Amino acid sequence: MNKATIPAAQKTCLSLLLDDHRKVKKLFREFESVKDDTRKEAIVREACMELTVHTQIEEELLYPALQEANHEAFGDMVDEAVVEHAGAKNLIAELESMKPGDDLYDAKFTVLAEYIEHHVKEEEEDLFPKVIRKKIDLQEVGAMMVERKEALMSEAMA
Ligand SMILES: [Fe+2]
Ligand SMILES: [Fe+2]
Are 123 and 21 in contact (CB under 8 A)? Predict the structure, then answer.
């Protein structure tokens, strides 16, 4: 999905989410080639933090706004997204209590990356284009997301 083509009504909201998607995908790719445990752990921690904040703002702000705007169009899609998030959150919780070298550490992060790649593909190829097609006004939601993300990131890094 190309940020430049997003209409004004969805721009702030979807651009923020697309940037997050790009950022974690980059971390997933880096993890594939990294050998050093310290860097590995840093990648896992950063990706888990980013994903925790990202899924939270989607669940708090975007998904309810879509269901409220048009339940028929978005009800099932959003329900599935929430279930996909829950699967990712389980792996994140497990990874947060582990360290590199532990049994299944690499496997859990690799499977998390696969879950997220799949989920991001659905958002960018199905959900977000539908939001634009249905002309859902997300200007207020976008502004709230920017603020909420800032607050959650500074909490997470404190
Ligand atoms: Fe997302
Ligand atoms: Fe999502």
Answer: yes
